[in-house]
Amino acid sequence: MFYKDERLALFIDGSNLYAAAKALGFDIDYKLLRAEFMRRGKLLRAFYYTAMLENDEYSPIRPLVDWLNYNGFSMVTKPAKEYTDSQGRRKVKGNMDIELTVDAMELAPRIDHIVLFSGDGDFRPLVESLQRQGVRVSVVSTIRSQPPMIADDLRRQADNFIELEDLKDVIGRPPRESTNSREDVFEQED
Length: 190
What we know:
Blueprint: E1 7-13, H1 14-24, E2 27-28, H2 30-40, E3 42-52, H3 62-70, E4 74-79, E5 81-84, E6 90-93, H4 97-107, E7 113-117, H5 124-132, E8 136-141, H6 152-157, E9 160-163, H7 168-171, E10 172-173
Parallel strand pairs: 1-3, 1-7, 3-4, 7-8, 8-9
Antiparallel strand pairs: 2-10, 5-6
Pfam families: NYN
InterPro entries: LabA, NYN
GO molecular function: RNA nuclease activity
């Protein structure tokens, strides 16, 4: 469902994509991901959204953010919020939905097709609004994990649903062995 002459933009919800790929047993090779969508159309922008722990000496996601920043991705970050839940566990919260939505709405008049890498149902109204503006929207996530990582209403609203597992051979690499890598530290919000 891609046309070679259409102007594309990628909007990657970092923690959501990371969780979906992890549930399917692979890591994303972002260089291959960018190359794949450059092949599918005229890629104008590739945005990556993530919250970061500012007060830690070392953030496990910092190397990825730096690499993406130097390799053609537009990074959108903000400080994550730390809190203690009712059971006394340390939690980290970093929701980037508003930032992603604002950027997509601003870019909509200049693009033909948005590829949203997220299964978060909160993005359904965004997809609907983009479609009213004449922008086609593809959503990349998975229904093959247990439970599925994509909200059913988001999947139904999209012009095109791309199963992440079907991209595994094109954009995937085996997962690295690590205890607390990249986006693991952020709580998923639905």
